[in-house]
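## retry 2 of 3
previous attempt timed out at serialization; input unchanged, resubmitting
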Amino acid sequence: MSKTESLVRQLADSIANGSLSAGDRLPSIRVAAQDHNVSKNTIVEAYDRLVARGLITARQGSGFTVAAPSHAIREDDAPRHLVEAVDSISLLRAQLDQNYAVRIGDGRPPALWMAGIPLRSFPEPNGDTPNDTSGYGSHMGYHPLRALIAAQHKMDGIALRPEQIVTTFGANHGLDLIIRRYLKPGDTVLVDDPGYYPLFAKLRFSQVTFIGVPRGPNGPDLEQLRTLAQLHRPKLYFTQSLAQNPTGTSMDLATAHGVLKQAEIADFLVVDDDPFVDLPNATGVRLAALDGFDRVIFVGTFSKTLSASFRTGYIAAHASITDELAELKMITTVNSSRFSEMIVAEMIQSRRYARHLKKLAARLAQAAQKLKSDLATLNLRCKVDPGQGYYAWLGLPKGVSDTELAKKAATEGIFLAPSSFFMVHPSDAPSGMRLNTTRTSDPRFLRFLQRELGG
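## retry succeeded, writing output
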């Protein structure tokens, strides 16, 4: 058991047995670190887990206090794998609650960037069951949308038929279907490290062991991938070809080829989760462009480039795989949202989506250039120049704690995303943070960086 887990259990037991009562204030991070002879990062992580579990609350300027019993999720009231999964998505809760004025750690662009998306009128149906808009539609998803997606992939040089596509409630639903179908408790998979933290939560919930493959400027470390694949014999490798979350890195040709070569040697499938595939300024090599969906399962979504409320995504793979996943979709959710899929199809057909993407890409390029310039004035720079997707990975100067910096920012209404959220082993995370390039021009954030890191 790690120091963090031991401390979480100790405090949770104290709350459960009444040694700590509702309303009691916990020691500050500095004092608690001294009392327990651990690092401040360990205390921050332990407190964050207790907040996510509902055992304690955090308020700006007031520190941490024990929550009322009705708010708490006790460890003996829920399976451990569920508790651990909930612990790991406290960052997501902060994004959904939107309690911060400045959301640098958020996953989406500002609302202004998505202006003009709402429909002028609801589109008329066509394709499957054209006269019944109240029905479920095909279990594979709205056929006209699948045909449009297939056509776009073909324009990118990737052969794909509508029959190889099944629609989902966004990328996270797609990942969930893949995990449910191909993995069972005790199985082992590989993931990018740093990587997509909601995926880590899903794997914890499914009691699947996940091993981190270090992510570099051009994608995963191929030597590490080879070693880990030989050692652990994974069933799947979850990665991102383009504009990876959280680093913003994309695979070059040699890396993409190397990933597929290792997949063939070690006999595993590669799940390529790519929310920015439609952005015209995303460069790099897509795994499906080399593989032809032999070992690649592609997960796409419109939720990052359109409104997140649409929750519209898709899986593209070999037809035998999408057939199985469509059946599982029927079992778990009956179907995805036909209305949302009709709306997205109308946007693509009318070229409104293409015009929106062009404007979005121009704004992103401008924001990325400004971020690079602003950081240069502070003698800071991202691991890779920003501009690939929404995210950039900022390493912090030696001696600067990202968790302490995030806590301080929170007292000023600024939401930051420390590196520990994205690492397979949070306690070993280097000091850094994920920046949302679309939000970093806010002068309040820049003043905060100048004051805290400028000297």
